[in-house]
Amino acid sequence: MAFRPFHAVLLLGLMLAHPAGAEDPVADAQTVISRQITALMAGNAREAYSFASPAIRSLFPSEAGFFDMVRRSYTPLSEPGHYAFGRAKAVAGGEMVLQEVIVTGRGAKDWSAIYEMRLQDDGSYKVNGVRVLQRTSSTGI
Question: Region 58-79: what's the mean pLDDT?
């Protein structure tokens, strides 16, 4: 079968319909979460803040204010011993991803952090909220 101009147009159309990185919203969201946790652990307020959604940035308009809030209210995320990804769910075709992160923090306490990730106009995911709950039983990491 010869490669015809129609096939080239069809192939180009398929490539444009699925931009790079958009095939797996969960993996994309996990990459952002990992990068933010790494920045928090390194004390890099600027990098950690860069992953916050516009809604979070409106609540905390400065990097320092955001970083202080995270260190005060989300200590298990800023100082994890270990973390692993748990359950995840892409909602509304990937417009939102809910991602569980299982964290072992200080004193070997286990926590579940539920991240709400929002797809931005530029195709990136940003952290739009996190809820941290102490786990009453450990499943191990």
Answer: 92
